[in-house]
Specification:
alpha/beta; inorganic pyrophosphatase (n-terminal core); Diaminopimelate Epimerase, Chain A, domain 1; 2 domains; six-stranded parallel beta sheet; about 35% helix; about 20% strand; globular; binds manganese (II) ion
């Protein structure tokens, strides 16, 4: 249930910047230090690299940069993801090397599997990996030491930051291709440097990556100015449904809208941000009717309002300010149910604030 755009993980005061370089972090309470990951990699030769289902920019960009790092270390590595790489990330260097593997991890005898930002093996949706040596690299607060080696740093603004540190620690030269992948990951996972937790360390990393060959204008063009027309038309349809009640705003699209406009599921990503972008709105809800008539719900919130508990009520999850769940249709009934849950949650939040 990892939502494509995520937020907030870093606590103030970290990481430390030394002369324009991101410092290697100290041991994190949840796992082992970077040195343990590096040692585990050095001792092995063949690696399967993966990340979560419905991959976002951080998952894809970091996966590619990690693959390049391992190649530079003289290792054999293969990238496999359960879901397809989103179209906007398919122009990233080596993106065509990522195999889509919907089910059993296939045909590659790995000495170890490296998971990027997964809180469990299941999060990758790849099966048949349980008997392999597992390495877990994660920056989410939901991070969980499920693997043989776990490096979890909730202060990192993207898992890209951790991959970058790993490359530096391994003394691998960061090429322009790697820098491009990592910058793309950082840009998308910080919401274009907008989200809570973006600090001097984030910009120090961005500066390093630009020094190493990432070109911000070109990457921004690929990410933000290369939308298919169908995405804009779908956004138009969604905005005609926009409603607001106090600090809650919501909007939706039906499956008929999707078909009529020739829109793909990917075209619906980010629509919720237009609702949370309204002044005074603290929670935004976007509902999309899927082909099977079930409803995919995206939730966004501002500041200290957490939407994860709302998503969890319906079997979903995600991040504090960006979560999602899937509900039964029809769409008007789902809208009523999710708005009820949001109102109750805001009520509790307000009561807790007053207490
Ligand atoms: Mn991430």
């Amino acid at each position: 249930m990892t939502e494509p755009t995520t937020t907030e993980r870093r606590t103030p005061g970290s990481p430390v910047e030394h002369g324009g370089r991101i410092d290697t972090p100290a041991r994190d309470a949840l796992g082992q230090p970077i040195a343990a990951v590096l040692e585990a990699i050095r001792q092995r030769q063949r690696f399967l690299l993966t990340s979560h289902c419905r991959p976002d920019g951080d998952a894809v960009g970091s996966l590619l940069a990690l693959w390049m790092t391992l190649n530079a270390m003289g290792k054999q590595a293969e990238m496999q993801l359960y879901d397809p790489v989103p179209v906007i990330y398919r122009t990233l260097p080596a993106a065509e090397q990522i195999r889509r593997c919907a089910g059993l991890a296939h045909g590659f005898e790995a000495d170890a599997v490296i998971f990027l930002e997964c809180d469990s093996v299941e999060r990758s949706r790849l099966q048949g990996l349980e008997d392999t040596f597992l390495i877990n690299i994660d920056h989410h607060t939901s991070g969980n030491p499920f693997a043989s080696v776990n490096w979890i740093d909730t202060r990192a603004s993207a898992v890209a930051e951790m991959v970058y540190r790993l490359a530096v620690a391994a003394k691998v030269t960061v090429t322009p291709a790697m820098a491009t992948c990592l910058y793309t990951a950082l840009l998308s996972d910080t919401g274009s440097f907008c989200y809570e937790g973006t600090d001097a360390g984030t910009f120090a990393l961005a500066r390093d990556l630009v020094d190493m060959g990432a070109t911000p204008a070109r990457i921004a063009e690929d990410l933000y100015f290369s939308n298919p027309l169908s995405k804009m038309r779908l956004l138009g349809a969604a905005l005609t449904t926009l409603q607001r009640e106090g600090s809650v705003a919501w909007l939706w699209v039906t499956h008929d809208d999707m078909v009529r406009l020739g829109a793909s599921d990917e075209d619906s990503l980010g629509i919720v941000n237009y609702a949370i972008g309204i002044s005074g709105v603290e929670v935004a809800v976007f509902l999309r009717e899927m082909a099977d008539r079930r409803i995919r719900v995206s939730l966004r919130s501002k500041s200290t309002v957490r939407v994860t508990p709302v998503a969890e009520q319906f079997g979903g999850g995600g991040h504090e300010n960006a979560s999602g769940c899937t509900m039964d249709g029809p769409i008007d009934a789902a809208t009523d149910r999710i708005l009820d849950a949001v109102r109750r949650h805001l009520h509790l939040h307000a009561a807790a604030g007053e207490a």
